[in-house]
Structures are given as structure tokens and as C-alpha cells.
Amino acid sequence: VQMEKQVVDGLREVFHTEPLHRLITERQADIEQALKQDLNRNTYNTSLFELISIENDIKLVESDMADWAAPRPVKKNLNSTLDDVYIKPKPLGVVLIIGTWNYSWAMILQPLVGAIAVGNAAVLKPSELSEHSARLMKELLPLYLDKEMYQVVTGRVLETQELLKQRFDHIFYTGSSTVGKLVMEAAARHLTPVTLELGGKSPCYISKCLYIRRITWGKFANCGQMCIAPDYILCEPSIQDRIVEEIQKTLLEFYHKDPKSSPDYCRIINTRHFDRVLALMNECTIALGGESDRSQCYIAPTVLKNVLPHFKIMQEEIFGPLLPIITVNDLSEAIHLINAREKPLARYVFSSDKTVFFSLPVSGGVTVNYVLMHYTVDTLPFGGVGNSGMGRYHGRHTFDQLSHHRACLIKSFAMESLNDARYPPLTAARLRKAKFFMQHRLCSCSGSAPLALGVLFELASPVWLSTSRYL
Ligand code: NAD
């Protein structure tokens, strides 16, 4: 165990995340500029929604990595009382990280932080849709990180498919569920494990018209292009109009009269997505917004009322600034509606009665009386379930996700007679002894106690063999 700890210290010299930290701090202005070109994102939002969490994970690695990488002793059964038994996280090898365009830096660099900390090499494939960020990432990474260990590959779908034909030791994919299935299929050819960080329709149930500005912020930040943005609202008919009024007030406060000229309001990534999002409004009644400008990929913050579950907008993840409201008679109708759909990445509840939250069906994560914020707690695992993904990351969870947890047992040479119970010629008495030692555990023994117990067993062995049938 001591030697394992020394190896960890040695690896820390080589695999450290400090160069990545320098990259995002020294080149912050370039990153902000690239995101301005990709999404019209302003500099403050880039820090708030991407750089802070990357930096946070780097700091966490620097302070806690020695603990994460250290051998993790486990409880032992009587058979292994005198042995060293522990789990040792080991590097997997080469990790392929494929990212999206909506948070093009965080979706690549956050998993990379964990990959570096474990000691993995990585190939990074940023999304081609956020082209300025992808180009800049390819240019900057070799200036800060070891080129042999970490490489950026840019390209479109064909290039990604070509990459997926190669054998990796882990694939960490962030993107849509549709492409996630293709990634998993490609990984299966080499039996490569995958982490799939996907999306879905994250519902927001409002039982009372409280803190609507929190929802307004979470829905329209990044122009709604966020995997955990509240996708739709469920509420009772009596509060629908109040909710619309509150959203209208908040939008005025956030983006003033004309969101198009607000420095805080983003754009849709390209005209293909612009057309897709706009088409989702077709059957709906617009309560707020609805304006658009294709030449700028601008869609105003839009609220749609009296939406019905069979409308097109309720059949796919919106990933844009449209917020449909569906009215339900009560919580059980809301649950029924949610249950009829795929398991989403997040669920939100606004209620003064916190027990409401317990009745909600499973999802990747939950935030009560706020939206998005469970993402920012670095000790919580972030990931989906079912159609919204598999695996988890952030902080220590990334480290664990991208390492192999090797089971280690270093047997002691002492007490060979305990092992005799398993050797032929087997008898009923030996089997009883073997069973006893395999099935019982020393709960809180430490120091010399296991040794003393072992000696006792050794001495008492003949007596024990004749009495163990009564145990
Ligand atoms: P996408 O699946 O279209 O693309 C993601 C990546 O996959 C890109 O790098 C792209 O080059 C590659 N790709 C696209 N088509 C491919 C194909 N046929 N074969 C191989 N590779 C292919 O996703 P997107 O549009 O960039 O992102 C939007 C989706 O991502 C939404 O569903 C959103 O919810 C989800 N998302 C999830 C998270 C999360 O953390 N869970 C974060 C951000 C976005």
C-alpha cells in the first residue's frame, strides 16, 4: 500500500492539470471571443456557464487527487483478515472525448481534467458546429499540453465516424440520444466502455407561482440551448396566466424591451437549428415573444400557453428559447404525463411543500425550487438515466468514471492452516470452516487485533473443527 502511494506521488509529477489551468486563464479572452462568434455569448456568461466549472474541477483535482488516487482499503472477511485488501484506481489508457457545440469548452475540458488526473491519454473531438471554438481548441491545446498524450481532432460527422472505428479504452460522449446510440454501437465492436451524457425533455412542475425569475433565467440563458434547461412547465390552469405575467416582467428586467439588442441574449447556433426550433411553434398559441430573424439566427424568448401533450413541440427536446406551458388538474396528472415519456436528464419542482419532490419519477438529477443548479455542486454526480444517458462525472466522479478500479489482494504468508480448509481432500468439516471464514467479517478490528484473532484461530483449530457445526 505504501509503494502504491509512492507511485501515486510520482504520477502526480507527470499528470497534472496546471497547464490546462494556465490555458483557460491566459487565453480566456480568445475563448470568449470564439464563443461570441459561435453563439453571440457575452464574456460574463462564458465565465459563468463554462470557465468557472472547468477551473473548479481543476482546483479540486489539485487539492484532492492524492486521496482519490490512493489505495482505498475495504472491509475484509475473516479469510483475508491478515492480508492487504484494497481498491486501486488505475488509468484506462486512451479516452476519446466527443463534445457538443452548446458548451463547447466545458463539454470537452471537464472530462479531460478527470482523464489527465487519472493518467489517461485523450483524443478530443469538439463539435464542428461551434467552429470558432473547435479551431481555437486545436490551436491552443498543443501549446499547453503534451502533444503525445492529448490531441484534438476536428471534423464533421464523417471524421467522427472514422474516429469511432478506432479502438479506444473509453469513449466519453456528450450529445443527442440519437447519436449516442450510434456511438454505443461503434463502441460495442471493440467492447469499449462508454459514458453517454445525453439530453431529453426536462419538466418543471410548478405548484405555486413562486420564484418564476429563477425559471426564466434557466430557460433563456444560452438561448435555451442547454441540456438541463427546463423544457416545459406543468401547472394548474388557475396559475398559468400569473406565470406568463411573471416571466414577462423578468424578461424585461433581464433583457430589456428588445432582447435582440441585449448583450446577454445569445443566438441559435445555425440556420438548420433555427428552422427546426421555429417549426416547433406551429400548432401553439404564443403568449409571449415569437419574433425571429433568420439572418441573425435570432429567436425571441417565447412562452407558449395551453400546449397539449400530443403537439410536435412535446415530441422532441426543444433546445431553444421556447417555453411551452401544459396545464394539469393536479400533481398526479403531472406525474402521469411525465411517466409517459423517456427519463430526462433533470426534473424541477417549485413548491413550498418539499414532499412533492419525492413523488416525482426518476431522472438524472433534481433541483427543487430552482433550476440547473445541481450541475454546479461539484460533489454531486452529473449524468443521465435511461434515454438521457449513462455514467456520471464532475469532480471526483470524473476521476472514478475514467479509471479502472482494480481489486487488489496481497496475501499474507501466515496462518496457512486457515487456507487448508479449501484444499482437497475436502470434508464436511473443512467446508464448514471455509464457509465460516468466507462469510464472516471483522467489523472494526484494527492494529494487532486481526493478528491476535488469527493466532487464536490457529491454536484453537482442532477444537474449532469439532465445534464449528454449532456456529
Ligand atoms: P450531436 O449529437 O448532434 O453532436 C455531438 C457530437 O457528435 C459532435 O461532435 C458531432 O460531430 C458528433 N456527431 C454528430 N452526428 C454524428 C454521427 N452521425 N456519427 C458520429 N458522430 C456524430 O449533439 P449536439 O447537437 O452537438 O448537442 C445537442 C444535444 O446534446 C442535446 O440533446 C443536448 O441535450 C445534449 N447535451 C447533453 C449534455 C449533457 O451533459 N448531458 C450537455 C450538452 C448537450
From TrEMBL:
GO biological processes: aldehyde metabolic process
Residues that span the membrane, as ranges: none
Gene3D superfamilies recorded: Aldehyde Dehydrogenase, Chain A, domain 1 (3.40.605.10), Aldehyde Dehydrogenase, Chain A, domain 2 (3.40.309.10)
Keyword NAD (UniProt): yes
Domain of life: Eukaryota
InterPro entries on file: Ald_DH/histidinol_DH, Ald_DH_C, Ald_DH_CS_CYS, Ald_DH_CS_GLU, Ald_DH_N, Aldehyde_DH_dom, Aldehyde_DH_NAD(P)
Active-site residues from the entry: 197, 227
Gene Ontology MF term list: 3-chloroallyl aldehyde dehydrogenase activity; aldehyde dehydrogenase (NAD+) activity
Record's keyword terms, sorted: NAD, Oxidoreductase
Keyword NAD (UniProt): yes
Any one GO cellular component localisation term in the record: cytoplasm
Domain Aldehyde dehydrogenase: 76-404
Family: Belongs to the aldehyde dehydrogenase family.
Name assigned to this protein: Aldehyde dehydrogenase
